[in-house]
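job 3f2a | input accepted
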Amino acid sequence: MTPDQAIKRLMDGNDRYVKDQLMHPNRNQIRRDALTATQKPFAIILGCSDSRVSPEIVFDQGLGDLFVVRVAGNVVGPIELDSIHYAALYLDAVLILVMGHENCGAIQAVLSNNTKDIPTVAGKIQPVIKNTPLGQPETVKEAVKANVRSVVRDLRQSPALSRLIKENRIEVIGGYYNLSNGEVEPVTE
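job 3f2a | predicted structure (189 res):
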């Protein structure tokens, strides 16, 4: 599978989800049996821990299809990066999607300077959104997208991932999940 094919597969699944026409692929005993010895997910999703944003559901994928790394604010520290490296280098995933979402609580906490209980997550987000204007209706959405862009840039600069990108073996992209309608829209530079 190529990165472009992986993107299409995710977006086709998201389209089914938005239209409430889920196929629930790869969710049976045959698939479970096939995955007991190994896995080969086609995509890595770095998403927020938010309970409303489950990648397997949002993209209508099944067991073994996605390697999901979830952390508040979809930020990347050493542990998350190691997990992503593992899936890219050893499981041969061809796509990394960094997915932020509407009304992200971590972003809202940073914007409102209510971060005493999430200092590590906030420390990753604060420098990225420091120039986001407060009080604007689109503030949270733009801050989420700025955070996604920053994480995408950081991942692309990882030496291991950079090499895979140059070899056309993986792509790193951003997305924004709309809670209200279920659609994942691209986040580009």
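job 3f2a | The radius of gyration is 16 Å.
job 3f2a | closed
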